[in-house]
C-alpha cells in the first residue's frame, strides 16, 4: 500500500518533530526523508511553496546523512525544523 500526499507529509513532519525533540537523527531517518521528498516532488498537485520547503529539507537530510556529528547538525537546525514543521502544517 502506498502512502498518499497527506500521509507522506504526516510522516515527514513526524520525523522532523522527532529530530527537533530528541536533538538527534539517524542515517535511516535521513534516507527516509529523502525518499519521501523525492516522491512528493514529482506530485504535480503540490504547491511551489511546499516544493521550496521540501528542497530545503532535502538539503538538510543529505548533509545529516553524511555528517559525523548528527546531534550538532540537528541542534544547528532547530529554528529551521520549527519553521518547516509549521509550514507543513499550513499546507497539509
Can you offer a commentary on this structure?
By secondary structure, the chain is mainly alpha-helical. The protein has one domain (5-91). Helices cover 79% and strands 0% of the residues. The chain contains 5 helices and no strands. The chain has helices at 5-22, 27-41, 48-66, 70-76, 78-91. Helix 1 packs antiparallel against helix 5 and helix 2 (27-41) packs antiparallel against helix 3 (48-66). It is globular and about 35 Å long.
Q: What's a concise summary of this model?
A:
With 92 residues, the protein is an all-alpha fold.
Features:
92 residues, mainly alpha, 0% strand, globular
How much helix is in the residues?
Answer: over 70%
Shape: globular
Termini, distance in Å?
A: 20 Å
- Strand percent estimate: under 5%
Multimeric status of the protein = single chain
Our count of domains comes out at 1
Query: Biggest sheet: strands, sense, closure?
Result: none
Mean pLDDT: 91
Q: What is the H/E string? A: HHHHH
Structural class given helices, strands, pairing?
mainly alpha
Kindly provide the radius of gyration, computed on alpha-carbon positions and rounded to a whole number of angstroms.
12 Å
Number of helices: 5
Organism: Sutcliffiella cohnii
InterPro entries: YtzH
Protein name: YtzH-like protein
Pfam families: YtzH
List the helices and strands and how they pair.
Blueprint: H1 5-22, H2 27-41, H3 48-66, H4 70-76, H5 78-91
